[in-house]
Write a structure and sequence with these properties.
Oligomer: single chain
CATH superfamily: Alpha/Beta hydrolase fold, catalytic domain
Largest sheet: 9 strands, mixed
Number of helices: 8
Strand content: 15-25%
Structural class: alpha/beta
Distance between the termini: 37 Å
Order of helices and strands: EEEEHEHEHEHEEHHEHEH
Radius of gyration: 18 Å
Number of domains: 1
Shape: globular
CATH class: Alpha Beta
Strand order of the largest sheet: 1-2-3-5-4-6-7-10-11
CATH architecture: 3-Layer(aba) Sandwich
Number of strands: 11
């Protein structure tokens, strides 16, 4: 494990830029938010597909101001961990879980061994937990906007878009360009080719997450923690059926508590798949904070 840091001081916390190197020699950029006064708890944030870590900075800052040490990072091929040339870059969702996320948990075990540890998985960030044995070290998990995304679990309009997008457009553009230009379709950052194909598997294969886990060491059934499952009422990609499929079929040994966030709880009446983490929804963050503070 190699690491370098760049430190910026704020009033209630310090933000450090970290460069971590995975066991297969890929550089990842992470940020460590250290509180002025620590409560001895650490929160790791696993991002959604194609979502840069900066989206979570305000959320991380807020939790750091409450005493949490927080880590954000970009998977290989995303944001600050993106290569100059995406064409043919070696990356997949399976590598995100087994190598990238693994490097973060290795860093945490070395640097924060005596902390109480929590992990927030946003969308795919929850699906990759089963790809890393170290997921067992977290006292509690937080799932935000995640499910088994098989097209059969989706709502009618989204189902049609998924069949067209992932059945035709995505494989065509990916094969032509050597990567998936997700930003062309409002789906976040461009993705390495095999990340796009793994995403296609999640959507079009009935086994969804479990199909990816069949191709890699699978630790999903080892996880026996509490999990706090948050989904937004206006998330068009998410359904109760898909969420329950993930908890029943992929993570059956977790103990879930469910929280549906109503549109009326958002000041802008807008949450969706990503906007829970936007600064204008700051008051919603106490939903998670109250779950993690000592009662």
């Amino acid at each position: 494990m190699k690491m370098s840091t760049f430190i910026v001081d704020f009033f209630f916390y310090t933000m450090e830029k970290l460069i971590l190197t995975t066991e297969d020699h890929v550089s990842l950029t992470a940020h460590l938010f250290r509180p002025e006064k620590s409560n001895g708890k650490l929160l790791l944030i696993n991002s959604a597909t194609g979502v840069k870590q900066q989206v979570y900075f305000s959320f991380a800052q807020y939790f750091s101001e409450q005493g949490f040490t927080v880590i954000t990072y970009d998977y290989r091929g995303i944001g600050l961990s993106k290569p100059e040339n995406m064409r043919g870059f070696h990356g997949s969702m399976r590598l995100w879980g087994s190598k990238d996320y693994k490097e973060l948990t290795r860093y945490i075990k070395v640097k924060f061994s005596d902390y109480r540890k929590y992990c927030l998985g946003h969308s795919v960030g929850a699906l990759i937990l089963g790809m890393n044995k170290d997921s067992e070290m977290f006292e509690e998990l937080i799932f935000v906007g995640t499910q088994n995304a098989f097209v059969g679990n989706l709502k009618k309009r989204t189902k049609i878009e998924a069949y067209l997008g992932f059945g035709i457009v995505q494989p065509l553009t990916t094969s032509l360009l050597g990567y998936f230009p997700a930003h062309w379709f409002g789906l976040g950052e461009s993705l390495p080719k095999n990340c796009a194909y793994d995403w296609r598997t999640l959507i079009l294969n009935k086994k969804s997450t479990n199909k990816l886990l069949e191709k890699i060491d699978d630790y999903s059934k080892n996880l026996k923690q509490k999990v706090f499952v948050v989904r937004a009422e206006d998330d068009i990609w998410l359904t109760e059926k898909g969420v329950l499929s993930l908890l029943n079929n992929t993570y059956p040994n977790l103990t879930p508590t469910y929280r549906l966030v109503k549109i009326s709880e958002s000041e802008k009446k807008e949450i969706g798949h990503v906007n829970f983490f936007r600064n204008y929804n700051k008051k919603l963050w106490d939903i998670i904070l109250n779950e993690l503070i000592d009662k």
